[in-house]
Prior knowledge:
With about 550 residues, this protein is α+β, with helices and mostly antiparallel strands. The chain has helices spanning about 10-20, 40-50, 55-70, 135-145, 150-155, 155-165, 170-175, 180, 185-190, 210-220, 225, 230-240, 245-250, 280-290, 300-320, 330-335, 340-350, 465-480, 485-490, 510-520; strands at about 30, 35, 80-85, 90-95, 165, 205, 255-260, 260-265, 270, 370-375, 380-390, 445-450, 455-460, 495, 500-505, 525, 535-540, 545-550, 555-560.
Amino acid sequence: MxxxxxxxxxxxxxxxxCALSAFSFSPVAARHGMVASSEPLASxxxxxxxxxxxxxVDAAVAVGFALAVTYPVAGNIGGGGFMLIRxxxxxxxxVDYREAAPAAASRNMYLASNxxxxxxxxxxxxxxxxxxxxxxxxxxxEQKYGRLGLARVMAPAFRLAxxxxxVSYEFSESLRSGxxxxxxxxxxxxIFLRDGHLYEPGEVFKQPELAKTLEAVxxxxxxxxxxxxxxxxxxxxxxxxHGLITAQDxxxxxxxxxxxxxxxxxxxxxxxxxxxxxxxxxxIEMLNILEPLDxxxxxxxxxxxxxxxxxxxxxxxxxxxxxxxxxxxVPVARLTSQAYAATLREEIxxxxxxxxxxxxxxxxxxxSQTTHYSVVDDExxxxxxxxxxxxxxxxxxxxxxxGFLLNDEMDDFASKPGTPNLYGLVQGEANAIAPNKRxxxxxxxxxxxxxxxxxxxxxxxxxxxxxxxVLQVVLNALVFKxxxxxxxxxxxxxxxxxxxxxxxxxxxxxxxxxxxxxxxGYQIDFRDRMGDCEAIEVAPRTGWKFGAAxxxxxGKAVGY
Length: 560
Ligand code: DON
Protein backbone atom coordinates (compact mmCIF):
# COMPACT_ATOMS: atom_id res chain seq x y z
CA MET A 1 0.00 0.00 0.00
CA UNK A 2 1.29 3.47 -0.84
CA UNK A 3 1.19 4.86 2.64
CA UNK A 4 3.45 2.27 4.20
CA UNK A 5 6.08 2.04 1.49
CA UNK A 6 9.59 2.86 2.60
CA UNK A 7 11.50 5.63 0.93
CA UNK A 8 14.78 4.50 -0.67
CA UNK A 9 17.48 6.74 0.69
CA UNK A 10 19.27 7.65 -2.54
CA UNK A 11 16.34 7.72 -4.93
CA UNK A 12 14.69 11.02 -4.01
CA UNK A 13 17.83 12.94 -4.75
CA UNK A 14 18.15 11.46 -8.21
CA UNK A 15 14.48 12.01 -9.03
CA UNK A 16 14.52 15.54 -7.70
CA UNK A 17 17.62 16.40 -9.63
CA CYS A 18 15.98 15.24 -12.85
CA ALA A 19 12.64 16.89 -12.20
CA LEU A 20 14.17 20.18 -11.21
CA SER A 21 17.01 20.50 -13.64
CA ALA A 22 14.79 22.70 -15.78
CA PHE A 23 14.26 25.30 -13.05
CA SER A 24 16.65 25.01 -10.19
CA PHE A 25 18.89 27.89 -9.37
CA SER A 26 19.30 29.25 -5.88
CA PRO A 27 16.94 31.19 -3.70
CA VAL A 28 17.97 34.78 -2.93
CA ALA A 29 19.81 34.81 0.40
CA ALA A 30 19.92 37.77 2.78
CA ARG A 31 20.99 38.31 6.35
CA HIS A 32 18.56 41.07 7.36
CA GLY A 33 15.31 41.25 5.49
CA MET A 34 13.52 39.94 2.42
CA VAL A 35 10.63 40.95 0.21
CA ALA A 36 9.25 38.64 -2.48
CA SER A 37 6.52 40.05 -4.71
CA SER A 38 5.17 39.63 -8.22
CA GLU A 39 6.73 42.83 -9.54
CA PRO A 40 10.36 43.90 -9.11
CA LEU A 41 9.77 47.64 -8.50
CA ALA A 42 7.29 46.82 -5.76
CA SER A 43 9.76 44.46 -4.06
CA UNK A 44 12.35 47.27 -4.19
CA UNK A 45 9.81 49.63 -2.59
CA UNK A 46 9.47 47.21 0.31
CA UNK A 47 13.21 46.87 0.81
CA UNK A 48 13.53 50.67 0.68
CA UNK A 49 11.31 50.76 3.78
CA UNK A 50 13.29 48.05 5.56
CA UNK A 51 16.52 49.90 4.90
CA UNK A 52 14.94 53.11 6.21
CA UNK A 53 14.32 51.44 9.58
CA UNK A 54 10.81 50.25 8.85
CA UNK A 55 9.51 46.88 9.95
CA UNK A 56 7.86 44.13 7.89
CA VAL A 57 4.47 45.85 8.09
CA ASP A 58 5.88 49.15 6.80
CA ALA A 59 7.45 47.24 3.94
CA ALA A 60 4.26 45.29 3.26
CA VAL A 61 2.11 48.41 3.13
CA ALA A 62 4.64 50.04 0.80
CA VAL A 63 4.56 46.98 -1.48
CA GLY A 64 0.76 46.94 -1.46
CA PHE A 65 0.49 50.53 -2.64
CA ALA A 66 3.39 50.15 -5.10
CA LEU A 67 1.78 47.12 -6.76
CA ALA A 68 -1.37 49.19 -7.24
CA VAL A 69 0.77 51.38 -9.50
CA THR A 70 3.17 48.98 -11.22
CA TYR A 71 1.02 45.83 -11.37
CA PRO A 72 -2.54 47.02 -11.99
CA VAL A 73 -3.65 43.65 -13.30
CA ALA A 74 -3.95 42.57 -9.64
CA GLY A 75 -2.20 45.08 -7.38
CA ASN A 76 -4.85 47.50 -6.29
CA ILE A 77 -6.51 50.09 -4.15
CA GLY A 78 -9.91 49.19 -5.59
CA GLY A 79 -10.00 45.59 -4.40
CA GLY A 80 -9.42 43.70 -1.19
CA GLY A 81 -7.56 40.90 0.51
CA PHE A 82 -6.07 39.44 3.65
CA MET A 83 -2.90 40.39 5.48
CA LEU A 84 -1.46 37.86 7.92
CA ILE A 85 0.94 39.59 10.30
CA ARG A 86 3.16 37.81 12.79
CA UNK A 87 5.34 39.86 15.07
CA UNK A 88 8.67 38.48 16.23
CA UNK A 89 7.35 38.34 19.81
CA UNK A 90 4.72 35.84 18.69
CA UNK A 91 1.52 37.88 18.31
CA UNK A 92 -0.28 37.02 15.07
CA UNK A 93 -3.30 38.68 13.50
CA UNK A 94 -5.22 38.65 10.24
CA VAL A 95 -6.36 41.94 8.79
CA ASP A 96 -9.46 40.99 6.77
CA TYR A 97 -9.94 43.74 4.22
CA ARG A 98 -12.04 41.68 1.88
CA GLU A 99 -14.58 43.62 -0.17
CA ALA A 100 -18.15 43.74 1.11
CA ALA A 101 -21.34 43.48 -0.92
CA PRO A 102 -23.04 46.87 -1.33
CA ALA A 103 -26.12 47.37 0.88
CA ALA A 104 -28.30 47.24 -2.24
CA ALA A 105 -26.94 43.83 -3.28
CA SER A 106 -29.40 40.96 -3.26
CA ARG A 107 -29.33 37.22 -3.56
CA ASN A 108 -30.59 37.06 -7.16
CA MET A 109 -29.01 40.21 -8.53
CA TYR A 110 -27.15 38.32 -11.29
CA LEU A 111 -30.11 36.19 -12.39
CA ALA A 112 -32.29 36.87 -15.41
CA SER A 113 -36.08 36.49 -15.21
CA ASN A 114 -35.71 32.88 -16.38
CA UNK A 115 -33.63 32.16 -13.26
CA UNK A 116 -30.35 31.71 -15.14
CA UNK A 117 -27.15 33.61 -14.41
CA UNK A 118 -26.71 36.59 -16.77
CA UNK A 119 -23.36 35.97 -18.48
CA UNK A 120 -20.57 38.36 -17.35
CA UNK A 121 -22.85 40.40 -15.07
CA UNK A 122 -20.72 39.49 -12.06
CA UNK A 123 -17.34 39.70 -13.82
CA UNK A 124 -17.34 42.86 -15.95
CA UNK A 125 -18.67 46.32 -15.19
CA UNK A 126 -19.65 48.34 -12.17
CA UNK A 127 -22.33 45.91 -10.96
CA UNK A 128 -19.62 43.30 -10.36
CA UNK A 129 -17.73 45.45 -7.84
CA UNK A 130 -17.76 44.96 -4.10
CA UNK A 131 -16.97 47.83 -1.73
CA UNK A 132 -13.17 48.07 -1.86
CA UNK A 133 -11.22 47.18 1.27
CA UNK A 134 -7.56 47.61 0.36
CA UNK A 135 -6.98 51.20 1.46
CA UNK A 136 -8.72 50.67 4.80
CA UNK A 137 -6.81 47.41 5.34
CA UNK A 138 -3.39 48.79 4.51
CA UNK A 139 -4.00 51.98 6.50
CA UNK A 140 -5.13 50.03 9.57
CA UNK A 141 -2.16 47.67 9.33
CA GLU A 142 0.23 50.60 9.13
CA GLN A 143 -1.44 52.45 11.98
CA LYS A 144 -1.47 49.45 14.34
CA TYR A 145 1.74 47.68 13.46
CA GLY A 146 3.92 49.96 11.31
CA ARG A 147 6.55 52.43 12.43
CA LEU A 148 7.11 54.87 9.61
CA GLY A 149 3.59 56.18 9.05
CA LEU A 150 1.36 56.09 6.01
CA ALA A 151 2.85 59.11 4.20
CA ARG A 152 6.35 57.65 4.32
CA VAL A 153 5.41 54.12 3.23
CA MET A 154 3.28 55.45 0.40
CA ALA A 155 6.10 57.59 -0.97
CA PRO A 156 7.44 54.96 -3.42
CA ALA A 157 3.96 54.33 -4.83
CA PHE A 158 3.31 58.04 -5.23
CA ARG A 159 6.68 58.49 -6.97
CA LEU A 160 6.03 55.57 -9.33
CA ALA A 161 2.59 56.94 -10.22
CA UNK A 162 3.64 60.55 -10.63
CA UNK A 163 7.03 60.16 -12.31
CA UNK A 164 6.10 56.94 -14.03
CA UNK A 165 8.04 53.74 -14.50
CA UNK A 166 9.49 51.96 -17.48
CA VAL A 167 7.08 49.51 -19.05
CA SER A 168 8.47 45.97 -19.03
CA TYR A 169 7.80 43.39 -21.70
CA GLU A 170 5.54 41.53 -19.29
CA PHE A 171 3.52 44.59 -18.33
CA SER A 172 3.05 45.55 -21.95
CA GLU A 173 1.81 42.02 -22.74
CA SER A 174 -0.47 42.09 -19.74
CA LEU A 175 -2.09 45.33 -20.90
CA ARG A 176 -2.50 43.81 -24.34
CA SER A 177 -4.21 40.78 -22.85
CA GLY A 178 -6.63 43.04 -20.97
CA UNK A 179 -7.48 45.06 -24.07
CA UNK A 180 -10.92 43.63 -24.84
CA UNK A 181 -12.28 44.18 -21.37
CA UNK A 182 -10.52 47.48 -20.61
CA UNK A 183 -11.67 49.06 -23.88
CA UNK A 184 -15.31 48.88 -22.74
CA UNK A 185 -14.89 51.69 -20.19
CA UNK A 186 -13.80 55.26 -20.94
CA UNK A 187 -11.21 55.88 -18.22
CA UNK A 188 -9.76 52.38 -18.56
CA UNK A 189 -9.38 52.82 -22.28
CA UNK A 190 -7.71 56.22 -21.86
CA ILE A 191 -5.33 55.29 -19.05
CA PHE A 192 -4.37 51.67 -19.66
CA LEU A 193 -4.77 51.45 -23.43
CA ARG A 194 -3.87 55.07 -24.29
CA ASP A 195 -6.91 55.09 -26.52
CA GLY A 196 -5.58 52.24 -28.59
CA HIS A 197 -1.87 53.18 -28.68
CA LEU A 198 -0.78 50.36 -26.46
CA TYR A 199 2.26 50.90 -24.25
CA GLU A 200 5.36 49.21 -25.60
CA PRO A 201 8.30 47.93 -23.53
CA GLY A 202 10.69 50.76 -22.69
CA GLU A 203 8.06 53.52 -22.67
CA VAL A 204 7.30 55.35 -19.44
CA PHE A 205 3.84 54.85 -17.91
CA LYS A 206 2.66 57.74 -15.75
CA GLN A 207 -0.60 57.83 -13.78
CA PRO A 208 -1.23 61.41 -12.59
CA GLU A 209 -4.83 60.79 -11.48
CA LEU A 210 -3.77 57.79 -9.43
CA ALA A 211 -0.93 59.87 -7.93
CA LYS A 212 -3.53 62.42 -6.73
CA THR A 213 -5.63 59.66 -5.18
CA LEU A 214 -2.58 58.25 -3.41
CA GLU A 215 -1.70 61.72 -2.16
CA ALA A 216 -5.17 62.10 -0.64
CA VAL A 217 -4.72 58.80 1.23
CA UNK A 218 -1.17 59.65 2.31
CA UNK A 219 -2.42 62.92 3.78
CA UNK A 220 -5.78 61.91 5.24
CA UNK A 221 -5.49 58.16 5.76
CA UNK A 222 -8.41 55.91 4.80
CA UNK A 223 -10.77 58.92 5.03
CA UNK A 224 -9.06 60.30 1.94
CA UNK A 225 -10.47 57.34 0.02
CA UNK A 226 -13.78 56.49 1.68
CA UNK A 227 -15.05 60.08 1.96
CA UNK A 228 -14.46 63.26 -0.01
CA UNK A 229 -13.31 63.61 -3.61
CA UNK A 230 -12.25 60.00 -4.22
CA UNK A 231 -15.46 58.58 -2.74
CA UNK A 232 -17.49 60.99 -4.88
CA UNK A 233 -15.60 59.81 -7.95
CA UNK A 234 -16.39 56.18 -7.11
CA UNK A 235 -20.08 56.96 -6.68
CA UNK A 236 -20.19 58.98 -9.92
CA UNK A 237 -18.56 56.07 -11.79
CA UNK A 238 -21.11 53.70 -10.25
CA UNK A 239 -23.92 55.91 -11.47
CA UNK A 240 -22.47 56.14 -14.97
CA UNK A 241 -22.09 52.37 -15.30
CA HIS A 242 -25.06 51.21 -13.21
CA GLY A 243 -23.24 49.89 -10.18
CA LEU A 244 -24.58 49.70 -6.63
CA ILE A 245 -21.86 51.16 -4.40
CA THR A 246 -23.06 54.29 -2.58
CA ALA A 247 -21.38 56.94 -0.42
CA GLN A 248 -22.90 55.17 2.61
CA ASP A 249 -21.35 51.84 1.58
CA UNK A 250 -17.95 53.50 1.38
CA UNK A 251 -18.32 55.34 4.68
CA UNK A 252 -19.46 52.13 6.39
CA UNK A 253 -16.63 49.90 5.14
CA UNK A 254 -14.17 48.72 7.76
CA UNK A 255 -11.48 46.06 7.88
CA UNK A 256 -11.86 43.34 10.51
CA UNK A 257 -9.09 42.03 12.74
CA UNK A 258 -9.35 38.26 13.09
CA UNK A 259 -7.49 35.53 14.88
CA UNK A 260 -5.46 33.44 12.42
CA UNK A 261 -6.43 29.79 12.08
CA UNK A 262 -3.86 27.53 13.62
CA UNK A 263 -3.03 24.02 12.51
CA UNK A 264 -0.31 21.50 13.32
CA UNK A 265 1.56 19.33 10.89
CA UNK A 266 4.33 16.93 11.85
CA UNK A 267 5.52 19.19 14.63
CA UNK A 268 5.23 22.44 12.67
CA UNK A 269 2.67 25.10 13.46
CA UNK A 270 0.67 26.48 10.52
CA UNK A 271 -0.97 29.92 10.60
CA UNK A 272 -3.43 30.90 7.93
CA UNK A 273 -6.59 32.89 7.28
CA UNK A 274 -10.11 32.14 8.59
CA UNK A 275 -13.44 32.81 6.80
CA UNK A 276 -14.41 34.74 4.77
CA UNK A 277 -11.52 32.95 3.12
CA UNK A 278 -11.81 29.22 2.70
CA UNK A 279 -8.00 29.04 2.42
CA UNK A 280 -6.99 28.34 6.00
CA UNK A 281 -9.77 25.82 6.67
CA UNK A 282 -9.08 23.81 3.52
CA UNK A 283 -5.30 23.96 3.93
CA ILE A 284 -5.44 22.71 7.51
CA GLU A 285 -8.02 20.05 6.62
CA MET A 286 -5.73 18.71 3.88
CA LEU A 287 -2.62 18.81 6.05
CA ASN A 288 -4.48 16.96 8.80
CA ILE A 289 -5.54 14.23 6.38
CA LEU A 290 -2.01 13.83 5.04
CA GLU A 291 -0.09 14.13 8.31
CA PRO A 292 0.47 10.46 9.16
CA LEU A 293 0.68 9.17 5.58
CA ASP A 294 3.95 8.23 3.91
CA UNK A 295 3.95 10.53 0.91
CA UNK A 296 6.93 8.85 -0.75
CA UNK A 297 8.34 10.76 -3.69
CA UNK A 298 6.91 14.12 -4.70
CA UNK A 299 6.01 13.41 -8.32
CA UNK A 300 5.02 9.76 -7.91
CA UNK A 301 1.53 8.44 -8.56
CA UNK A 302 1.35 7.12 -4.98
CA UNK A 303 2.04 10.51 -3.44
CA UNK A 304 -0.11 12.46 -5.87
CA UNK A 305 -3.07 10.14 -5.45
CA UNK A 306 -3.16 10.72 -1.69
CA UNK A 307 -2.78 14.46 -2.04
CA UNK A 308 -5.42 14.66 -4.78
CA UNK A 309 -7.91 12.77 -2.64
CA UNK A 310 -7.25 15.15 0.25
CA UNK A 311 -7.89 18.03 -2.16
CA UNK A 312 -11.18 16.56 -3.34
CA UNK A 313 -12.50 16.19 0.18
CA UNK A 314 -11.43 19.65 1.29
CA UNK A 315 -12.92 21.33 -1.78
CA UNK A 316 -16.16 19.37 -1.43
CA UNK A 317 -16.42 20.71 2.12
CA UNK A 318 -15.53 24.19 0.89
CA UNK A 319 -18.46 24.08 -1.53
CA UNK A 320 -20.98 23.08 1.11
CA UNK A 321 -19.91 24.71 4.35
CA UNK A 322 -17.78 27.76 3.66
CA UNK A 323 -18.99 31.36 3.57
CA UNK A 324 -18.68 34.57 5.55
CA UNK A 325 -18.85 33.30 9.14
CA UNK A 326 -20.22 36.66 10.29
CA UNK A 327 -23.37 35.81 8.31
CA UNK A 328 -23.64 32.03 8.25
CA UNK A 329 -22.54 29.31 10.61
CA VAL A 330 -19.32 27.67 9.38
CA PRO A 331 -18.15 24.51 11.21
CA VAL A 332 -14.50 25.59 11.28
CA ALA A 333 -13.57 23.59 14.37
CA ARG A 334 -15.01 20.37 13.00
CA LEU A 335 -13.51 20.74 9.53
CA THR A 336 -10.06 21.42 10.96
CA SER A 337 -10.21 18.72 13.63
CA GLN A 338 -7.99 15.66 13.71
CA ALA A 339 -10.99 13.42 14.31
CA TYR A 340 -12.67 14.58 11.11
CA ALA A 341 -9.42 14.19 9.17
CA ALA A 342 -9.14 10.62 10.45
CA THR A 343 -12.54 9.71 9.03
CA LEU A 344 -11.69 11.23 5.65
CA ARG A 345 -8.34 9.45 5.64
CA GLU A 346 -10.07 6.12 6.15
CA GLU A 347 -12.34 6.83 3.22
CA ILE A 348 -9.39 7.74 1.03
CA UNK A 349 -7.41 4.66 1.94
CA UNK A 350 -10.32 2.35 1.29
CA UNK A 351 -11.86 3.77 -1.85
CA UNK A 352 -10.90 4.32 -5.44
CA UNK A 353 -11.24 7.71 -7.12
CA UNK A 354 -14.88 8.21 -8.02
CA UNK A 355 -15.88 7.63 -11.60
CA UNK A 356 -15.30 10.80 -13.58
CA UNK A 357 -18.27 13.02 -14.27
CA UNK A 358 -18.58 15.13 -17.41
CA UNK A 359 -16.97 18.52 -16.93
CA UNK A 360 -19.59 20.35 -19.00
CA UNK A 361 -18.77 24.02 -19.13
CA UNK A 362 -17.43 24.18 -15.63
CA UNK A 363 -13.76 24.03 -16.48
CA UNK A 364 -11.80 26.48 -14.35
CA UNK A 365 -10.46 29.49 -16.22
CA UNK A 366 -6.72 30.04 -16.67
CA UNK A 367 -6.52 33.45 -15.12
CA SER A 368 -3.89 34.01 -12.44
CA GLN A 369 -4.60 37.57 -11.55
CA THR A 370 -4.43 37.98 -7.86
CA THR A 371 -1.14 38.73 -6.22
CA HIS A 372 0.68 37.59 -3.14
CA TYR A 373 3.78 38.96 -1.44
CA SER A 374 5.82 37.93 1.55
CA VAL A 375 8.01 40.05 3.82
CA VAL A 376 10.36 39.23 6.70
CA ASP A 377 12.39 41.89 8.52
CA ASP A 378 15.60 41.79 10.51
CA GLU A 379 13.79 41.27 13.82
CA UNK A 380 11.73 38.37 12.51
CA UNK A 381 8.44 40.23 12.05
CA UNK A 382 6.64 38.84 9.02
CA UNK A 383 3.78 39.57 6.66
CA UNK A 384 2.00 37.32 4.19
CA UNK A 385 -0.39 39.39 2.09
CA UNK A 386 -2.68 38.26 -0.71
CA UNK A 387 -4.96 40.80 -2.35
CA UNK A 388 -6.84 41.04 -5.59
CA UNK A 389 -9.24 42.65 -8.01
CA UNK A 390 -10.43 39.06 -8.77
CA UNK A 391 -10.23 38.96 -12.57
CA UNK A 392 -7.21 40.45 -14.33
CA UNK A 393 -7.88 44.23 -14.18
CA UNK A 394 -10.91 43.44 -12.02
CA UNK A 395 -14.25 44.66 -13.34
CA UNK A 396 -12.27 46.61 -16.01
CA UNK A 397 -13.93 49.79 -14.72
CA UNK A 398 -11.56 52.61 -13.76
CA UNK A 399 -12.88 55.24 -11.39
CA UNK A 400 -13.13 58.40 -13.47
CA UNK A 401 -10.85 61.17 -12.27
CA UNK A 402 -9.27 58.94 -9.62
CA GLY A 403 -7.24 56.60 -11.84
CA PHE A 404 -7.72 53.17 -10.27
CA LEU A 405 -9.53 49.99 -11.22
CA LEU A 406 -12.43 48.48 -9.33
CA ASN A 407 -12.72 44.80 -8.47
CA ASP A 408 -15.23 42.23 -9.71
CA GLU A 409 -15.17 40.38 -6.42
CA MET A 410 -18.95 39.89 -6.38
CA ASP A 411 -18.31 36.90 -8.64
CA ASP A 412 -16.78 35.10 -5.67
CA PHE A 413 -20.28 34.79 -4.23
CA ALA A 414 -22.48 32.00 -5.50
CA SER A 415 -24.56 33.99 -8.02
CA LYS A 416 -26.81 30.96 -8.07
CA PRO A 417 -25.90 28.33 -5.47
CA GLY A 418 -24.81 25.17 -7.25
CA THR A 419 -23.71 26.98 -10.42
CA PRO A 420 -19.96 27.41 -11.03
CA ASN A 421 -18.25 30.81 -10.92
CA LEU A 422 -15.29 32.20 -12.89
CA TYR A 423 -12.98 29.55 -11.42
CA GLY A 424 -15.42 26.70 -11.96
CA LEU A 425 -15.98 26.62 -8.20
CA VAL A 426 -19.37 25.33 -7.25
CA GLN A 427 -20.56 26.96 -4.07
CA GLY A 428 -23.57 26.65 -1.85
CA GLU A 429 -26.08 28.54 0.25
CA ALA A 430 -23.43 29.53 2.77
CA ASN A 431 -21.94 31.77 0.11
CA ALA A 432 -25.14 33.26 -1.31
CA ILE A 433 -25.18 37.04 -1.84
CA ALA A 434 -26.46 39.25 0.98
CA PRO A 435 -26.07 42.98 1.70
CA ASN A 436 -22.73 43.87 3.36
CA LYS A 437 -21.63 40.21 3.41
CA ARG A 438 -18.11 39.33 2.24
CA UNK A 439 -17.76 36.85 -0.64
CA UNK A 440 -15.96 33.60 0.04
CA UNK A 441 -12.30 33.71 -0.97
CA UNK A 442 -9.61 31.12 -1.64
CA UNK A 443 -6.76 33.44 -0.73
CA UNK A 444 -4.35 31.67 1.58
CA UNK A 445 -1.57 33.84 2.97
CA UNK A 446 0.20 31.42 5.27
CA UNK A 447 3.12 31.06 7.68
CA UNK A 448 4.76 27.96 9.10
CA UNK A 449 6.57 27.99 12.43
CA UNK A 450 9.15 25.53 13.64
CA UNK A 451 9.75 25.33 17.40
CA UNK A 452 7.92 28.63 17.75
CA UNK A 453 10.15 30.38 15.21
CA UNK A 454 9.20 31.60 11.78
CA UNK A 455 10.13 29.10 9.06
CA UNK A 456 7.99 29.82 5.95
CA UNK A 457 5.97 32.76 4.64
CA UNK A 458 4.00 32.16 1.45
CA UNK A 459 0.87 32.52 -0.65
CA UNK A 460 -0.22 32.67 -4.27
CA UNK A 461 -2.82 33.87 -6.74
CA UNK A 462 -4.79 31.42 -8.84
CA UNK A 463 -8.48 31.59 -7.92
CA UNK A 464 -9.60 28.14 -6.86
CA UNK A 465 -6.10 26.74 -7.31
CA UNK A 466 -4.58 28.99 -4.61
CA UNK A 467 -5.13 26.65 -1.67
CA UNK A 468 -3.64 23.68 -3.51
CA UNK A 469 -0.63 25.71 -4.60
CA VAL A 470 0.06 26.68 -1.00
CA LEU A 471 -0.45 23.08 0.13
CA GLN A 472 2.06 21.78 -2.40
CA VAL A 473 4.72 24.37 -1.63
CA VAL A 474 4.38 23.60 2.08
CA LEU A 475 4.67 19.84 1.44
CA ASN A 476 7.59 20.36 -0.92
CA ALA A 477 9.49 22.32 1.71
CA LEU A 478 8.59 20.35 4.84
CA VAL A 479 8.06 16.79 3.62
CA PHE A 480 10.10 16.55 0.46
CA LYS A 481 12.89 18.72 1.87
CA UNK A 482 13.26 21.01 -1.10
CA UNK A 483 14.82 24.43 -0.70
CA UNK A 484 12.32 27.26 -1.04
CA UNK A 485 12.99 27.91 -4.72
CA UNK A 486 12.69 24.23 -5.56
CA UNK A 487 9.51 24.06 -3.50
CA UNK A 488 8.03 26.99 -5.39
CA UNK A 489 9.22 25.82 -8.81
CA UNK A 490 8.15 22.19 -8.63
CA UNK A 491 5.31 21.22 -11.03
CA UNK A 492 1.81 21.66 -9.59
CA UNK A 493 -1.46 19.85 -9.83
CA UNK A 494 -4.98 20.72 -8.82
CA UNK A 495 -8.27 19.05 -8.06
CA UNK A 496 -11.23 21.05 -6.75
CA UNK A 497 -13.82 18.26 -6.48
CA UNK A 498 -16.10 19.87 -9.06
CA UNK A 499 -15.58 19.83 -11.96
CA UNK A 500 -14.20 16.34 -11.50
CA UNK A 501 -10.99 17.01 -13.35
CA UNK A 502 -7.38 16.69 -12.34
CA UNK A 503 -5.41 19.62 -13.71
CA UNK A 504 -1.66 19.11 -14.24
CA UNK A 505 0.91 21.65 -15.24
CA UNK A 506 1.90 20.77 -18.76
CA UNK A 507 5.62 20.52 -18.13
CA UNK A 508 7.24 18.49 -15.39
CA UNK A 509 5.23 15.33 -14.70
CA UNK A 510 6.55 12.04 -16.00
CA UNK A 511 4.63 10.11 -18.63
CA UNK A 512 4.44 7.12 -16.27
CA UNK A 513 2.84 9.10 -13.50
CA UNK A 514 0.34 10.68 -15.88
CA UNK A 515 -0.55 7.27 -17.24
CA UNK A 516 -1.10 5.81 -13.77
CA UNK A 517 -3.27 8.76 -12.79
CA UNK A 518 -5.38 8.21 -15.89
CA UNK A 519 -5.64 4.47 -15.19
CA UNK A 520 -6.77 5.24 -11.64
CA GLY A 521 -9.80 7.04 -13.08
CA TYR A 522 -8.79 10.67 -12.96
CA GLN A 523 -9.97 12.76 -15.87
CA ILE A 524 -6.87 14.80 -16.70
CA ASP A 525 -6.47 18.19 -18.25
CA PHE A 526 -3.34 20.31 -18.65
CA ARG A 527 -2.64 23.91 -17.95
CA ASP A 528 0.49 25.90 -18.82
CA ARG A 529 1.02 27.40 -15.38
CA MET A 530 -0.63 27.41 -12.02
CA GLY A 531 -0.14 30.20 -9.50
CA ASP A 532 2.63 32.65 -8.69
CA CYS A 533 3.93 31.76 -5.24
CA GLU A 534 6.13 34.39 -3.64
CA ALA A 535 7.76 32.80 -0.62
CA ILE A 536 10.40 33.27 2.05
CA GLU A 537 12.10 30.63 4.18
CA VAL A 538 13.99 31.48 7.35
CA ALA A 539 16.86 29.11 8.08
CA PRO A 540 16.23 27.49 11.47
CA ARG A 541 19.69 27.84 12.96
CA THR A 542 21.20 30.93 11.34
CA GLY A 543 18.13 33.13 10.76
CA TRP A 544 19.21 33.82 7.19
CA LYS A 545 16.31 34.61 4.90
CA PHE A 546 15.86 32.82 1.57
CA GLY A 547 13.47 34.35 -0.93
CA ALA A 548 11.84 32.72 -3.95
CA ALA A 549 9.91 34.46 -6.67
CA UNK A 550 7.89 31.98 -8.69
CA UNK A 551 9.64 31.34 -12.04
CA UNK A 552 6.19 31.03 -13.62
CA UNK A 553 5.85 34.81 -13.45
CA UNK A 554 8.15 37.83 -13.36
CA GLY A 555 8.30 38.68 -9.68
CA LYS A 556 11.47 39.21 -7.72
CA ALA A 557 12.78 38.37 -4.29
CA VAL A 558 14.93 41.22 -2.98
CA GLY A 559 16.92 40.97 0.24
CA TYR A 560 19.43 43.09 2.07
O1 DON B 1 -10.63 35.61 -3.45
C1 DON B 1 -10.48 34.74 -4.30
O2 DON B 1 -10.38 33.57 -4.03
C2 DON B 1 -10.41 35.13 -5.74
N1 DON B 1 -11.04 36.38 -5.95
C3 DON B 1 -8.98 35.14 -6.14
C4 DON B 1 -8.82 35.48 -7.56
C5 DON B 1 -7.55 35.07 -8.12
O3 DON B 1 -6.74 34.46 -7.50
C6 DON B 1 -7.35 35.46 -9.53
N2 DON B 1 -6.28 34.75 -10.04
N3 DON B 1 -6.42 33.72 -10.57
